[in-house]
Amino acid sequence: MAGQKSAANTQVGDHPFLRAVAALSTVAGWCSAAMIVTAVAITCQMIFVRFVLNGSTVWQTEMVVYLVIGATLVGLAYVQRLRGHVNVDLIPLAMPAKARRAMAVLTLSLSIAIIAVMLWYGFDYWHFAWERGWKSDTVWGVRLWIPYLALPVGFGLLMLQLIADLVGVLTGAETPFGLENN
């Protein structure tokens, strides 16, 4: 994409909120990567147990599913920080700087509103599972509030990163859509 910046080059300046959110998103990205690596290791162990030792697997499949879903949700903020989500910049490229800034403020505000709704319902679902003591219907019987915690954590981190992006655009610390002014 034209003018796109990496996370290392994104200007957060001396703004403490932007720096804190950037650090938090980076930690979330590392946690997400660790979950993926753990899921791959468990998958390898599961293959060894099933096909070499001819044994049964009790918890491995369920754990891998929870880890991959958790990695996806927790990693959302890091991907947003890198601007790694699908981005079509044809319209912003054709706009003058002021209109581009207004469009960035509008899209970020709408994104924050949508993610706030998802955070609300994600938290409600997690809390319901925790309060009721839900367990999975498998032999392992994992307490479901543990994997469901990825919902409010992931959406909360994403919303925080989107708010930081909005603050960055409003304060001029970041350019709208990562594009330089013409």
Keywords:
disordered N terminus, 182 residues, 0% strand
Explain how this protein is built:
The chain has 182 residues and is mostly helical. 69% of the residues lie in helices and 0% in strands. It contains 7 helices and no strands. The chain is elongated and about 65 Å long. It starts with 15 loop residues before the first helix and ends in an 11-residue tail after the last helix. The N terminus is likely disordered.
Please outline what is shown here:
This protein is mainly alpha-helical. It has helices at residues 16-52, 60-74, 76-82, 90-94, 97-132, 145-148, 150-171.
Q: What layout of secondary structure does this protein have?
A:
Blueprint: H1 16-52, H2 60-74, H3 76-82, H4 90-94, H5 97-132, H6 145-148, H7 150-171
Helix pairs in contact: 1-2, 1-3, 1-7, 2-7, 3-7, 5-7
Helical amount among residues, as a percent range? 55-70%
- Count helical runs: 7
Described by strand count, sense and barrel closure, the largest sheet is: none
Number of strands: 0
